[in-house]
Amino acid sequence: MIGFTLFVLTLSLLYYFAIRPHNYWSKRNVKTNKFIPIFGDYYRMILGKESIGEMIQRCYHEAKNLRYVGCYLFQFPALMITSPELVKKVCVKNFDHFMNHKNVIPDGIDDFLTKNLVTLKGENWKNMRSILSPSFTSSKMKAITENILLFDVVPLILQRPYNYWSKRNVKTNKFIPFFGDYYRMILGKESIGEMIQRSYHEAKNLRYFGCYLFQFPALMITSPELVKKVCVKNFDHFTDHKNIIPDGIDELWTKNLVSLKGENWKNMRSILSPSFTSSKMKAMFVHISENANLFAQHFLKMDEETVTVEFKDAFTRYTTDVIASAAFGVKVDCLKDRDNEFYVMGKKGSNFTSSWGISVFTAYQILPSIAKFFRLRLFEENIQSFFLNLNSKLELSDSDIASQVFIFFLGGYETVSTAMCLMAYELAVNPDVQKKLYEEIIENRKDNDELLYETISNMTYLDMVVSECLRKWPVGAFTDRVVTKPYTIEPEVAGEKTLTLDVDQYVIIPTIAFHHDPKYYEHPEKLHT
């Protein structure tokens, strides 16, 4: 009985709120077009079959030879006027009967929408109109025209930086002012690696071409021979890298070996180089091996037939363990202690795709002077403090050393773990390679259960697999150089002219594009071992 009562009540409510309102025009002998209860004339829009403009036109043409037609906006009745003469009466002759617009938001709910000139009603509308009308006199419109002219000048100012390569007779690919060659990345249509490869292939048969990173001109070199000149033969002209953050803003970034320039770079390199001799690497291997055993044991102890592993998470935890023990003498186990400070800070410090990281990077690219004025920093204060505190534990307090600590941490944390992830993927999809590599490892371990530094050094197939994975999946899509002494590129092919690169000119070397060019690697998308 209760169920029947609820059923009747539901039908009654449905009729009262959904069906009954649609009798409005029939009671007044006004014709209507086809509609559906509840949705009214909006039903095709709800289904995504037409826009608001298409709905209006359809209703208009369905009411042919009528001066007006009734329609329903959901359950609300509306009269559509199809006669221009009747429109004149409503909007001009009898305007005092039709002063108001329909308000989407009820009064008192949202003042921002309900108190503007379009939504105000009656006397409130008249008062506001009398206040605003003087803003649109002839003299005021003339003043506005001057601002409109300013908007004509702004595009010219924005386009000015994009004449750089055309003045030097250097060809460029398609770009969009303000965003440069980054426009597809901004729209989320390609990654940095895809952008580099696209630009490289669009410049086919050229040794170099010009591109724009936002408004900054850069020269991308597509000839391996020219790359050798830049990176080896004439290296003294290209000793520096481009620095994302200006000097003096964020010392954790600007004082590391990658960012330092000139004599500062030479001095820091001479200090750090002894840390990577053969004997030091051999000593470091002990820590790598110990943590590798802990890593393997962690998953072997899982009493499950199938173990699910999120490789990026697992490998970054492993590399954190290695760096903590090898570089800082601190033993951590990030697989067990999942909120370990080393891991958390490494993850924060290497997350350049966060909204803040992207904002800072973009600000220094588009508005460098303003970004520098506000001293926008890439890293949060707690990350800075963490690496400075690491120095104090090592009895080192200089910010120069803190910066090296950070870049060492970042390099091991992010790049190595990424390479390991991609190598694991390639071994999974290439079982023949996996089997051959496994056999080499077993063969080299037959005389010793423990993998030694010398043992791994003698594994030629392992070296081939790692090298080929890095060829197919380079950790960096490109590398760069900044001109430190003027350099001239002499013409060698038809159509080229002498090109002089000024000091501070940015040069891009498209690593990933070389690695995936069939000219240098047959079937580059395959893993060759």
From TrEMBL:
SUPFAM superfamilies, A to Z: Cytochrome P450
Membrane topology: Peripheral membrane protein
Signal peptide per UniProt: 1-18
Keyword DNA-binding: no
Nucleotide-binding in keyword set: no
A GO CC term assigned to this protein in UniProt: endoplasmic reticulum membrane
Cofactor(s) this protein requires: heme
Location in or out of the cell: Endoplasmic reticulum membrane; Microsome membrane
Gene Ontology molecular functions: heme binding; iron ion binding; monooxygenase activity; oxidoreductase activity, acting on paired donors, with incorporation or reduction of molecular oxygen
Keywords linked to the UniProt accession: Endoplasmic reticulum, Heme, Iron, Membrane, Metal-binding, Microsome, Monooxygenase, Oxidoreductase, Signal
InterPro entries for the chain: Cyt_P450, Cyt_P450_E_grp-II, Cyt_P450_sf, Insect_CytP450_Detox
The family this protein is said to belong to: Belongs to the cytochrome P450 family.
Protein name: Cytochrome P450
Organism taxonomic ancestry: Eukaryota, Metazoa, Ecdysozoa, Arthropoda, Hexapoda
